[in-house]
Design goal:
It contains six helices and seven strands, in the order ααβαββαβαβαββ. The chain is α/β, with parallel strands linked by helices and 201 residues long. Bound molecules: S-adenosylmethionine.
Length: 201
């Protein structure tokens, strides 16, 4: 069985670089491997954003003229002037409405690192994770600009392939699954990376 190492090299690197979470390195790799660039000045949305590691990377990417909106169930300590955060549940209809008001012209990128509280029962954890990614995708379908990108974490389980084929794949021109180097050994997580959003599918 894989040994869980809470303070591995990514943890130490995040600490030395002033990043709030080691998962920031996953996002850097995902963006690079998907060829997602040119976001200077753009609005981007990050779901499941606490404590803010991904927000720090995204804030850097969009620069001072861009805007990053981060949502989480828990409060996020303030970041730079180009980051707005919201303590809210993404499954609630009013959260979608609040996000629509924050970015009436939509977002260029929607990311989700949302994860359920794990129970240790694989079937339950996978089903809850799939529910969250379905919520992230339905949010992206409403709030993404045409041509935008979507990137989301999910735990691998038996219902994932049908979800990708039926729900996600038709909405985007490009699609790949990526398991970043910083993902812990033995973890069920994988990232769905979709590019060139096609609205109305
Ligand atoms: C792995 S952490 C995210 C880490 C983050 N990407 C970072 O770099 O700091 C997963 C987050 O998903 C959030 N989450 C889970 N369900 C959610 C929901 N329904 N709405 C909003 N956030 C949710 C959790 O509160 C948790 O903070």
């Amino acid at each position: 069985m894989a040994r869980y190492q809470p303070k591995d090299r990514f943890f130490n690197k995040a600490k030395s670089e002033g990043l709030r979470a080691r998962s920031a390195f996953k996002l850097v790799e995902l963006l690079q491997r998907a060829g997602i660039r040119g976001l200077a000045g753009a609005p981007v949305l990050d779901l499941g954003a606490a404590p803010g590691g991904w927000l720090q990377i995204l804030a850097d990417l969009v620069g001072p003229r861009g805007r990053v909106v981060g949502v989480d169930l828990v409060e996020i300590a303030p970041l730079g002037p180009n980051v707005v955060t919201l303590a809210a549940d993404m499954r609630a209809a009013e959260t979608l409405e609040a996000l629509r008001r924050l970015a009436p012209a939509g977002f260029a990128l929607v990311t989700s690192d949302m994860a359920p509280k794990t129970t240790g029962i694989a079937a339950t954890d996978c089903a809850r994770s799939l529910d969250l990614v379905a919520t992230a995708l339905s949010t992206a379908r409403v709030l993404l600009r045409p041509g935008g990108a979507f990137l989301a974490k999910v735990f691998m389980g038996p219902d994932l392939d049908p979800f990708v084929a039926r729900e996600l794949r038709p909405c985007f021109e490009g699609f790949r699954r990526v398991r970043p180097e910083a993902t812990r050994e033995g973890s069920r997580e994988i990232y769905l990376v979709a590019t060139a959003f096609r609205p109305g599918r």
